[in-house]
Design goal:
160 residues, 6-stranded antiparallel beta sheet, disordered N terminus
């Protein structure tokens, strides 16, 4: 029981408030994995409102995973974050970060293999344009080479 309480307390401390991460992934053409949160890009675009949101944190073995989306006008970017709960060695995971219009077309998916060590790692996802007035859905999941992956998902409106 004490170990469960420790894991839950650690998970809640690492998760922070749901709106704590307001950022967009790096502009690289290939998925990037880093030790620091991606910085917000394109927020000085004039009159377009910047909207962002993060999905609920989901636990997978020793990691707490969440997806975040930033909408700037019609430009949408997504990234996943994964925090190690109990200190220990890092390891490789398969990841998927996807973006779609709710009730419409998919806007992109990035997937691959990445090594995640101690602390929090970030995986950049697709960037795309979405129609004004629509809602986009993003999801992020890690799999431990055979373990069914729980996914963090979030819906964010595209307000222009």
């Amino acid at each position: 029981m004490k170990r469960t309480a420790l894991v839950l307390a650690t998970a809640l401390a690492l998760a922070g408030p749901p709106a704590a991460a307001v950022a967009a992934p790096a502009t690289a053409t290939t998925p990037s994995v880093g030790a620091s949160a991606p910085t917000a890009a394109g927020q000085a675009s004039g009159t377009a409102a910047v909207t962002s949101g993060c999905g609920p944190a989901v636990m997978m073995i020793n990691r707490l995973n969440s997806v975040c989306v930033t909408v700037d006008g019609t430009s949408v970017s997504v990234y996943g974050s994964s925090a190690q709960l109990i200190p220990g060695p890092g390891r490789s995971f398969l990841y998927t970060v996807s973006l779609a219009v709710v009730g419409g077309a998919g806007l992109g998916t990035r997937s691959g293999s990445t090594y995640l060590g101690a602390g929090t790692g970030y995986v950049s996802g697709p960037k795309a344009e979405a129609p004004c007035g629509s809602t986009v859905r993003a999801s992020f999941s890690l799999t431990d080479f055979g373990t069914p992956p729980p996914a963090s998902t979030v819906d964010v409106p595209v307000t222009c």
